[in-house]
Amino acid sequence: MQVVSPIREHLVTGGKTYHDVTEDISRQVEGPVTKEWKVVFTVALLVLAYGGYWVYQTWWYGLGNWGLNKTVGWAWDITNFVWWVGIGHAGTLISAILLLFRQKWRTSINRAAEAMTIFAVLCAGSFIFFHMGRPWLAYWALPLPNTFGSLWVNFNSPLVWDVFAISTYLSVSLLFWYIGLIPDLATIRDRASGIRKTIYGALAMGWTGGARAWARYEDVSLILAGLSTPLVLSVHTIVSFDFATSVIPGWHTTIFPPYFVAGAIFSGFAMVQNLMLITRVVYKLEDYITIEHIGLMNKVITLTGSIVGVAYITEFFIAAYSGVQYESYAFINRATGPLWWSYAAMMTCNVLSPQIFWFKKLRENIVVSFVIAVVVNIGMWFERFVIIVTSLHRDYLPSSWTYFTPRMGDIGDYLFTFGFFFVCFLLFAKFLPVINMAEVKAVLKSSSEKTDKK
Amino acid sequence: MENTTKKYWKGIEEYRNDIEVVKNADKEFNLEDLDGGTHRRDFLKMLGFGVAAVSLAACDAPVRKTIPYLNKPETVEPGIPNYFATTYAESGEYSSVLVKTVEGRPIKIEGNKLSPVTKGGVSARVHASVLSLYDNEKLKGPQKGGADISWEDLDKEVMAGLSSASNIRIVSSSIFSPSTKKVIADFQAKYPSAVHVTYDANSASGLIEANKTSFGVAAVPSYSFDKAKVIVGINCDFLGTWISPVEFASQWAEGRKLVSGKDGKHDMSRHYQFETGMTTTGAAADYRAMIKPSEEGALLISLYSKLSGNTIGNSTVNPEILSKCIADLKAAQGAALVVSGSNDPAIQTIVNGINSLLGSYGNTITFAQKCNLRQGTDSEVNALVSDLTSGKVDAVIFLDTNPVFSHPMGGKLAEAISKVKTSVSFADRADETASVCKYIAPAPHYLESWGDAEPKTGSYSLQQPTISLIFNTRQAQSSLLAWAGLDSDYHKYLKANWKSNILGGKSWVSALHDGVLTSGTSENAPVSFSGDLGAAASSISSTKGGGLEVSVYESIAIGTGAQANNPWLQELPDPISKVTWENTLNISQKTANELKLEKGDWAKLSANGYEIELPILIQPGQAHNVVSVAMGYGRTGAGKAGNVGANAAPFMTNFNWTANASLEKTKSGYTLAQTQTHETVMGRQAVIQESVLSEYVKNNKAGRFEPHIATSDGLVKPYTISLWNGHEKQNHSWGMVIDLNTCTGCAACLVSCQAENNVAVVGKKEVARAREMHWIRLDRYYSSDADSEYQINPSHLREMEIASENPEVVIQPMMCQHCTNAPCETVCPVLATTHSSEGLNQMTYNRCVGTRYCANNCPYKVRRFNWWKYFENEDFDFHMNNELGRMVLNPDVTVRSRGVIEKCSMCVQRIQGGKLAAKKEKRRPVDGEIETACSQSCPTGAIVFGDMLDPNSRVSKALERESEGRAFHVLEEINVRPQISYLTKIRNKDLADAKVAGAQKEEHHETEEAHAEEEHHG
Questions:
Q1: Residues of A whose CB is below 8 A from B844
Q2: CA of B545 vs chain A CAs: smallest distance (Å)
Q3: How confident is the model at residue A447 (pLDDT cuts 50, 70, 90)?
Q4: Short-list A299, A222, A312, CA closest to A266
Q5: pLDDT number for residue B523
Q6: Separation CA A31–CA B424 (nearest Å)
Q7: Is position A6 within any domain?
Q8: Interface contact B851-A245, CB threshold 8 A
Q9: Which of A329, A397, A400, A410 to mutate to test the interface with B (most CBs of B within 10 A)?
Q10: Is residue A4 part of a domain?
Q11: Which of B779, B829, B864 sits opposite A160 (nearest CB)?
Q12: Count of domains observed in chain A
């Protein structure tokens, strides 16, 4: 039997009953589309359309629309790719690792976090296509049987590992998210009528709510959690291999795998924090996403932020200690070279800003949490930019040193993924339950605030 | 038995086998009787045809004009190139060349090794000349006042004009073709009033006039830089642009070659250079000092006075290195050479005095073989200008010259020429001069023409067409012959002239085959100096400099601007400044500070009532208070690619410079289209390894940087440990050895590579975005005043980024290093870049998906990405955007599509071709038979290509000699094991003067290395 310490904060406040949970969550799905949602959705669609124009430009006319050059072969493309993959990590961490560790506070945020994961991974995946000179041949990176003779993929290439890592990650995350949705979809089905009943019914895949169904549901969740736990670590490790296995000073670093994973969780939690804080206010879910949740998320943000901070400092130490001229120059150049401002932005946003969460007042302040979460995501974008661009723009031969200036294509393609992400998230928030009703109900008995119902 | 087989029939007609039935036997249903053309039974047929027809019509298949030979010419085999020997002899430049033609179109220029003058060397401009052949902005036929005219009408009108004229001028650049000279003589016989005036935009007038007064020989002598132990150049870019740079560079390199080992060659010439702007010659010199153009004369006076002990004039110019220079010159009596690029006869008289004092005549300079590449003198040209402006001349003919553009008085000339009754230009386009002439009788490109040349006395060269006329053009010589009333067949004329005057009984066919013919040279007649030095000195002191001076120089890429519309040349980075597509106002940092100008500014330069506006270039090594501007830019009649920059010719009032100019900032924030923006090597000894001669003599490995890796067994050399299995090479292992000592940075390799490998031109904007496509680049590093030892100290590193005021320069050709452990190969997800069994790093374009990971992971940054589609694209309106221009493409090399990576292939198509040729003859390829485009074109032989598995190849031998000497791999410590080796740069400089990184620390390295070895073995 599980014993819940009385000093623990309640995970659900307001003395909710099972029915209240169903009502609170399903109301959003069942009710009419609100004006605010329409406005935000329109904005998201416009951003998507504008970004889409630049995607067309880069695909139809070529990557010259970006600011890359002979020396800097990757910049915003792979920065965005790693950034989105990193953001995606929070979903899996929350749903898999926290499930295995029986962290019950995860129940109110895991659904949205997982949805975010999937959309973020799709955004990341789109940059795999965008960054290619000939994206229509992207399938050549898959080990497909073909008629090209003996041509096969290069299993030595970290980009091939990426293809496997990302596609595995996407499929497992998608499966996990969907399995978790089934009981809730059935709840909505049972309350709906007409065409909605048919659609949600089909999506619920004949969920009966019987004991056997629940037992299987629990088993599958556990198995998938077991499968995705290594993925939390492996996906970003493999992404970091894109850099770590190269010969470029500033990329060729053995510290990258743990550093990237910590960074991914860091940015992912920040993104979850942002999305949840908005959903909480808009959908009036203050009883489900409590200050306790926000505080816990901020603690994780501070921890992972400090881990990346230590990594940054370690890198500098090793660069100096190695005695390798190119290595130490790469790091001095990061901090004091022409792109010093990006390094300064990274350090301030990632290492310094989360430290304010040592103060409980700030940690539990919604506005501060929101702002810091945004700052962290900006910082993490700069971290990838710093790693990629400052290492490349001044590597071995000074004759080839250049500078990088983004062009509209870089910005447009990034906006496209933003548009895509928010369109998807808004559709999710409208048509699917944003909180896992079934799992919240499971913790209701033990962790809900008891108040007398009038 | 009775036959029981029954017979069935449809009707009585069939039974009777009527003739009608037999006829219609195949038409069972007799559909013709039915109404209408189509029938339900045809439905599927019609539908299928319809769909096919519509879909075919929808596909707009590009029209490819491929016309098969009906009668195949005997010598043309599709896919097999033919080589023809011919001669480039234009605008004062000479090269004996072999032209590679495929299916009747010339696509590549190579050097002719049989030529005693150019010895197989070809300059960048000559390499690029093949593209000028396919310039679609050339005139398609003769013109009168901008309208088309037929040749018959033109001849009639011009002849009428000429016969009514009483004062005819033929203006040409130096003509060193004996047959053309004869044609002009024939023309003059018909029109006795015709005077031939030689006008060279880059003349050697001062030298010729001084030689006339000093020795009574009005000519340019032959120089032997190879015989000189001490070479002094004063504003004389003899390795880049002065008179015959390809010839001089190869001679110069003779004296600069070093060979390691006991029996090696351990001495080299010492080269002093006094110059205004930084040139490739100054970059290659051992000692370089900066002088203003106004100081040239004073410097020479000082030099002469100190050498001879007789003071001939007062001089305040006394650079620090002068006394060292004088001591060396004195010691090198008879093996010294002083050259000046000045056009002031007074200055050249003093140079002649110095050379005669040093005993150079008969040793390093000879009049026995005159150099005919420059014949024009200023006095002649000034007379022409005054004749033209005063309206005396009533007919003028321009041959291979464009004085309206290139002469300082161009504007006035244009006005005067337009008033001349009969004016004809042979220009291939309506250039600045031709457009003010009445008639343009366009002459074909040299690759479409017959001709000959005598670049030096007794050294002849033939020119033959390699393609039939592309446009309705006619050779200038034919035109002149026609107007003289003679047979206009110049081929016949040329042959007759050679038979009677040049061949001397030798075979015409073999001369044509070889391209060159040498007749005996005359005896080395001693000359005695009789110039008036006192007069020269006083003339010099009367020319006053002062204020901000403007120096106009010739750039390697554009020269005098004759080939300005050649996109290869426009995109050729200047070997020193790395600027493409325009000329700049080059000033020193100090002058920039004084004038409050900085990088990215534009400024207006004005002097003598003329002004131009150009971007500022802060040039290390530039003399203070002098603005250098390249000539040849600012064309208005060149074409789409050529009309860039601003014309500096009007500043050449005082020979090639002027004083008291002013420079004013006009705007800022401009990005120059430079291919290299970082100036120094940042103390990276694994990249550039250099030392000085005295150290090298002591230890052949002087200047070598030998990194060691710490392992559990102590320090070891990088190549002794590896994660890789390597590649087995059983047959060949192609590689190169590049000598940093003899590379002058002339950029011939770059254009040669561009021509051979269909490298795209990307234009100014894209170059400014650092997206040029060149497969070989010439990395140029300036020395810095900061301590060259690397330190982990940001402020020191920032100091290292700043080039010295007068830096030492190293130029390093850099292309794909074909690493054995190639970082690019492991990271490609689709195996588009792989290793060959012959040591090549191969790029498979059609497998490339364009992730650019290989380019990122290349330590040498030699991979290039196709950011756009560079062919058939209006945004890149260069030769690959028109049908004529695309004729220059090499059919053996794929034109890369957008989105793929490309890089140096070590001319794999040439390697395969050479191997095939050898295989057909059942033998191994012979060393030297296969050459890459860059190694083939190097005038100094600095790039040597060959098979490292062939023990007799030049590459193997050089590596054997130099492995314990000068040979090194760039970035040895990352253990990628390149196939390309470099030889250290050795300067003939005293150790105390050297800015060389490794030089002072030699001993330190020695001990460290010994220590490492010891530990490794122990």
A1: none
A2: 37
A3: low
A4: A299
A5: 66
A6: 88
A7: no
A8: no
A9: A397
A10: no
A11: B829
A12: 1
Supply angle C-alpha A180, A185, A186, rounded to 5. Answer: 110
Closest CB to B827: pick one of A133, A152, A157: A157
* Nearest residue in A to B801, CA atom: A398
pLDDT means per 10 residues in chain B (1018 residues)?
69 79 72 64 87 81 72 83 92 91 91 90 93 92 91 91 90 92 92 91 90 89 92 92 92 92 89 93 92 88 86 72 89 91 90 90 88 89 89 90 90 89 91 91 93 90 92 92 90 92 88 87 74 84 84 92 93 94 93 92 91 94 93 90 91 86 91 92 91 90 89 89 85 94 93 94 94 94 88 89 92 94 92 92 92 94 94 91 92 93 94 93 92 92 93 92 92 92 92 64 45 44
- Tell me which chain A residue has its CA closest to the CA of residue B847: A140
Q: In chain B, which residues have their Cβ closer than 8 Å to the Cβ of A242?
A: 853
pLDDT of B546 reads 81
The partner residue sitting opposite A153, judged by closest CB among B797, B829, B867, is B829
Q: Which residue has the tokens 């504003």?
A: B235
Across the interface, which of A247, A332, A394 has its CB nearest the CB of B859? A247
- Contact check, Cβ <8 Å, B771/A402: no
User: For an interface test with A, which of B599, B853, B896 has the most A Cβ atoms less than 10 Å from its Cβ?
Assistant: B853
pLDDT beyond 70 at A131: yes
ipTM of the complex: 0.91
**B690-1017 is classed CATH 3.10.110.10:** no
Chain A nearest CA to B842, separation (Å): 15
Backbone angles phi, psi at B748, to 5 degrees: -65, -40
SS (H, E, C) B355-399: HHHCCCECCCEEEEEEECCCCCCHHHHHHHHHHHHCCCCCEEEEE
Q: Which positions in chain A touch B677 (Cβ < 8 Å)?
A: 401-403
List of chain B residues whose C-beta atoms are within 8 Å of the C-beta of residue A132: 849-851, 899
Could A398 and B781 be called an inter-chain contact, meaning their C-beta atoms sit closer than 8 Å? yes
Q: Tell me: the pLDDT tens digits for A268-318?
A: 889 888 888 888 888 777 877 888 888 888 998 999 999 999 999 999 999
Helix axes A110-130, A35-61, angle to 10 degrees: 20
User: What's the one-letter identity of residue B411?
Assistant: G
Q: Would you state the pLDDT for residue A449?
A: 64
Candidates B826, B868, B898; nearest CB to A156: B826
**All structural domains of chain B with their residue ranges:** 12-38+42-58, 214-370, 547-667, 690-1017
At residue B1008, the pLDDT reads 46
The CA distances from residue B359 to B335, B353, B362, B364, B586, in Å, are 8, 10, 8, 9, 37
Closest chain B CA to residue A71: B861
CB B933 within 8 A of CB B756: yes
Query: In whole angstroms, what is the distance from residue B249 CA to residue B194 CA?
Result: 38
Counting Cα atoms < 13 Å in the Cβ hemisphere of A357 gives 30
Q: What is the CATH number of the domain that holds A272?
A: 1.20.1630.10
Mutate to test the interface with A, among B787, B828, B831 (most CBs of A within 10 A): B831
Distance from CA of B836 to the nearest CA of A (A): 15
Residue pair A213/A207 in contact (Cβ under 8 Å)? The answer is: yes
Q: Is residue A2 part of a domain?
A: no
Is residue A367 domain-resident? Answer: yes
Give the C-alpha separation, B960 to B263, whole Å: 13
Q: Please check the confidence at residue A250 and state whether its pLDDT lies above 80.
A: yes
B residues 655..714 contacting A (CB < 8 A): 676-678, 680-684, 687
**What local confidence, expressed as pLDDT, does residue A352 receive?**
92
Contact A68 B852 (CB under 8 A): yes
pLDDT attached to residue B547: 87
What would the CATH number be for the domain defined by B214-370?
Answer: 3.40.228.10
Could you tell me whether strands B864-865 and B901-902 are parallel, antiparallel, or unpaired per DSSP bridges?
antiparallel
Residue-number span of the structural domain to which A160 is assigned: 18-144+152-447
Instruction: Identify the CATH number of the domain defined by range B547-667.
Output: 2.40.40.20
